[in-house]
Amino acid sequence: MPDPQTEELRVEQVRRAKREEDQARDADQQAAAKAHGRRAEKAGYLREKLAERAKAEDEATKGD
Question: Which residues contact 36 (CB under 8 A, 6 or more apart)?
Fold first, then answer.
């Protein structure tokens, strides 16, 4: 089972990505839309990395 902190961080990145995607759609100015889009991409990237970390932690636990 992944570390609780890793899982908490992963969930937060899912929420952050969704929030930034929503704000990018609702942004009035093009620059603001791009900034929110970049933040959503970053949150997605971090979410993927946290999923990899959780998987590695899970595999390490199984190996013990």
Answer: 20, 21, 23, 24, 27
Domain ranges of the chain: 4-63
Task: Give residue 63's pLDDT.
Answer: 73
CA separation for the pair 34, 40 (Å, rounded): 10
> Do 21 and 47 meet the contact criterion of CB atoms below 8 Å apart?
no
Number of other CB atoms surrounding residue 46 within 10 Å: 17
CB 17 within 8 A of CB 47: yes
Task: Give the per-residue pLDDT at 1.
Answer: 64
Tokens of 35: 């900034």
- Confidence label for 4 from pLDDT (cuts 50, 70 and 90): confident
In degrees, rounded to 5, the angle at the alpha carbon of residue 41 between the alpha carbons of residues 37 and 42 is: 115
